[in-house]
Amino acid sequence: MEHPAIKETSSDRLFTAINYLILSLFLVIILYPLIYIVSASISSSEAVISGRVWLWPVDPTLDGYTAVFKHKLIVSGFLNSLYYTVAGTLINVVMTILAAYPLSRKDFYGKNVFMFLFVFTMMFSGGLIPTYLVVKDLGRSIRPGRCCCPERLASGI
Question: Which of 10, 56, 97, 147 sits at 20 to 30 Å (Cα–Cα) from 129?
């Protein structure tokens, strides 16, 4: 059996139109800077400095990208980002699984205390810069194997 369609009133259509208008405005506000950055990165430096780039690239060139990729440390920076992303994700997933299973059990003794500690440290963590300063002051240099652990300890896991 087919249900009859709900009829939209004129106020419903006006509400939908205003929603589309506001969302379109947000879309333009968010997309324009992104398009400008890409256009400026492809345009010649003279065109960007003189202010001729608004939306589309002017005098397209890839000189900026060649200058960036000639730098020696760019590859190690990308590899560090990849390492921290993969290692951090794996450590987070493993630690979350190891903590979630016991906390899901009704017969786990001290469940409320542990749950409070987890939630409290998640809500009121020191933040990235204080964590870095503590690690630095403890004499631990920032190396790939050591960067993922302090955040796990800070979150109570």
Answer: 97
